[in-house]
Design brief:
This protein has 218 residues and is α/β, with parallel strands linked by helices. It has a single domain (2-217), classed as Rossmann fold (3-Layer(aba) Sandwich), CATH 3.40.50. Helix content is 42%, strand content 18%. It is built from eight helices and seven strands. It has a seven-stranded parallel beta sheet, with helices on both faces. The longest helix has 29 residues, at 2-30. It is globular. The mean pLDDT is 96. Guanosine-5'-triphosphate is lined by residues 40, 42-48, 74, 126, 170-171, 173-174, 202-204.
């Protein structure tokens, strides 16, 4: 009985989030904004990737919602790029939800006219499990894993791999030092989610970024 109640609560939360995510999507579309969520484990290179995409595309008008548990380190990093940014702290929660994003957009609209924003990046909290069931209404869900996380990181987290539209295997410059076969990571991602587009990149060296950039911003 106890277990059934827990399941009901979880389903209600997921359903409530789904409806709010639809509202967020409508809001983005009303303002002509393309929304891109960036998920992935702690330190996989989510912020570094978004920073690099912003720097490489000075003609695109970006805005960022920077999710984090308690800190504002990432928010400050984005602010240095002179893009409108709002930090979203989840407290103890291991993922963002559409309700937080809705509030984030409200705050963002105090900093910038949303009609002037082309692309909104939402960096989720570093985690390979919790964000899966809580889509945020974005047009693309991008998963960033790094070669330093080991060759099993993709098969160990099939749910989030299946939830992604784009999968980025980052830090390929470090793969050899870690004894990790990048092709094996890419193949595992393609096998688990055949409809996703998979890119092997190094944000540090720039290798592979062109194709990813075309896919996301092209
Ligand atoms: N060698 C190498 N280092 C990288 C690469 N991409 C990111 N890094 C480094 O990895 C570290 C973590 O990068 P972040 O971008 O902060 O990672 P994150 O996923 O945003 O981390 P959280 O927000 O804490 O979850 C930083 O020291 C980056 O400089 C890469 O392609 N190669
Ligand atoms: Mg980050």
């Amino acid at each position: 009985m106890h277990k059934v109640e827990e399941v009901d609560v979880m389903e209600n939360l997921i359903e409530a989030n789904r409806r709010l995510a639809e509202d967020v999507r409508r809001l983005l579309e009303d303002h002509g904004i393309k929304g891109i969520e960036v998920m992935g484990s702690i330190g996989s290179g989510k912020t570094a990737l978004v920073e690099e995409l912003i720097k490489r595309n000075p003609d695109v008008s970006f805005a960022v919602l920077a999710g984090d548990v308690v800190s504002d380190y990432d928010e400050e990093r984005y602010r240095k790029l002179n893009v409108p940014v709002v930090g979203l702290n989840t407290g103890r929660e291991c993922h963002l939800d559409a309700h937080l994003v809705e509030h984030g957009l409200e705050h963002l609209s105090e900093e910038v006219d949303l009609n002037d924003v082309d692309v909104l990046f939402v960096e989720n909290v570093g985690n390979l499990v919790c964000p899966t069931d809580f889509p945020l209404g974005m047009h693309e869900r991008v998963l960033v894993v790094s070669a330093t996380e080991g060759e099993d990181v993709i098969p160990k987290h099939p749910a989030i791999v299946k939830a992604a539209d784009v999968i980025v295997v980052n830090k390929i410059d470090l793969a050899e030092a870690c004894g990790v076969d990048v092709d094996a990571l890419v193949e595992a991602a393609e096998e688990i989610n055949p409809s996703a587009d998979v890119f092997a990149v190094s944000v540090k060296t720039g290798e592979g970024l062109e194709g990813l950039e075309r896919r996301l911003l092209g």
